[in-house]
Design a protein that fits this description.
There is one protein chain. By secondary structure, the protein is α/β, with parallel strands linked by helices. It has one domain: NADP-dependent oxidoreductase domain (TIM Barrel), CATH 3.20.20.100. The protein contains 12 helices and 12 strands. The protein is globular and about 55 Å long. The C terminus is likely disordered. Bound molecules: NADP nicotinamide-adenine-dinucleotide phosphate. The site of NADP nicotinamide-adenine-dinucleotide phosphate (NAP) has 29 residues, from strand 12 and helix 10.
Length: 369
């Protein structure tokens, strides 16, 4: 199974599987309680992922009010795989409403959060520690200094960001490079055929600055499995979007057309819609890993076959076309069509040929010219 082929995460030496395991639904408390799983229900999902060779596991302090980390800590200890797995968790969301320093990205909360996560996960280090969401106010310099201190203290091995504007990640990485601090190696963002917003800025930023993107909700929370159908006020079907969908996002004609294209591509390949959708995400430019969520071991098992086939260029083009959102405003000026019209008229100027590898520069101040 292709899960035992590991790739480097961003510009780092950390080897990770291209499908990682999302555990937002491990536990039955808090925000994600509606579709949460008990430890006994989570165990077969976790075990199946390990059996397939997967090593990259995602959680957050806030998932199921801390239960996700607690269950994961128990399952990792039980399976005796702490050193083998790449354990990722996140901080930002408040763990004590009303307490101003129990959330956000300030140094006080970051350190409190890492200590609490280590306790729940029953470990003395995190492989990857992510800022969960930009809090709009903490200076980026404070965050990067604290990541660096946590790395030096041995509490975390690598630092990363999730759900931040691309300018923020670029500023964070540039600051770390300029001051020889621990860099950001990963960026966790929503990405799927149904949500391609990050293609506007984040993907190029990640490729340029060495941040491997991990894609969350790669199946759009289950929409891309094809198990839902349009209904009066949203969608209907069995699954976690079935109820939320009624009051949740408005599913548009474009979404249903995309689903029809996905169904026909999957049919031609003889794979499930979920497998085709996951293959597309995991093999898009800049994507290090797709974070797969599953409600059962059998769902996960089916999805883990997503990298066992190649998506031919013609079928990828059909999916690209069906899911594309035409760039608006200033982003129109960065398209190949606009550039060959006004920036490079009459000449072909483009990317370097495949195989060309520019030297990686170390932007420590003493090395810059
Ligand atoms: N950084 C962030 O802000 C952020 C936000 C969200 C998620 N995440 C991470 O990303 C992970 C994955 O997110 P996600 O759960 O939204 O991912 P997803 O892969 O888009 O959706 C997973 C859900 O789709 C349904 N599904 C999956 N495979 C299926 C199959 N073969 N047949 C039928 N239904 C299937 C299941 O839900 P049902 O069975 O209930 O339908 C499953 O829970 C999370 O666990 C978390 O680690 C991060």
């Amino acid at each position: 199974m292709s899960l035992d082929h590991y790739y480097l995460l961003g510009r780092s030496g950390l080897r990770v599987s291209r499908l990682s395991l999302g555990t937002m639904n491990f536990g039955t408390g808090g925000f994600h309680a509606a579709y949460g799983k008990t430890e006994d229900e989570a165990r077969p999902i976790f075990r199946r992922y390990l059996e397939a060779g997967g090593n990259f596991i995602d959680t957050a302090d806030f998932y199921t009010a801390g239960e996700s980390e607690t269950i994961l800590g128990n399952l990792v200890a039980e399976a005796k795989v702490r050193d083998k797995v790449v354990l990722t968790t996140k901080f930002t969301n408040s763990v004590a409403p009303g307490d101003p320093n129990a959330g956000g990205n300030g140094r006080k909360h970051m350190i409190r959060a890492v200590e609490a996560s280590l306790r729940r996960l029953r470990t003395d280090y995190l492989d990857l520690f992510l800022l969960h969401t930009w809090d709009r106010i903490t200076p980026v310099e404070e965050v990067m200094r604290t990541f660096d201190d946590l790395t030096t203290a041995g509490k975390i091995r690598y630092a990363g960001l999730s759900d931040v504007p691309s300018w923020y990640a670029a500023r964070a990485q540039t600051y770390a490079e300029a001051h020889a601090l621990a860099p950001v190696v990963s960026l966790q963002l929503p990405y799927s055929l149904i949500d391609r917003t990050i293609e506007q800025e984040h993907v190029t930023m990640g490729q340029t600055l060495g941040l491997g993107i991990t894609a969350w909700s790669p199946l759009g929370g289950g929409f891309l499995t094809g198990k839902y159908r349009p209904a009066d006020r949203g969608l209907a079907g069995e699954g976690r979007l079935g109820d939320a969908g009624q009051a949740g996002p408005a599913w548009t004609d474009r979404d249903w057309r995309l689903l029809a294209a996905l169904e026909s591509v999957a049919g031609e390949l003889g794979v499930t819609m979920a497998q085709a959708a996951l293959n597309w995400v995991a093999t898009q430019p800049g994507i290090a890993s797709a974070i797969v969520g599953a409600s059962s071991a059998s769902q996960l098992d089916a999805n883990l076959g997503a990298l066992d086939f190649e998506l031919p260029a013609e079928l990828r083009a059909r999916l690209d076309e069906a899911g594309t959102v035409p760039p608006a405003s200033v982003y129109r000026m960065f398209t190949p069509g606009y550039q060959s019209w006004l920036v490079n008229p009459g000449v072909k100027v483009g990317d370097k040929p495949a195989g060309y590898a520019p030297p990686v520069r170390n932007w420590a101040p003493e090395n810059s010219d």
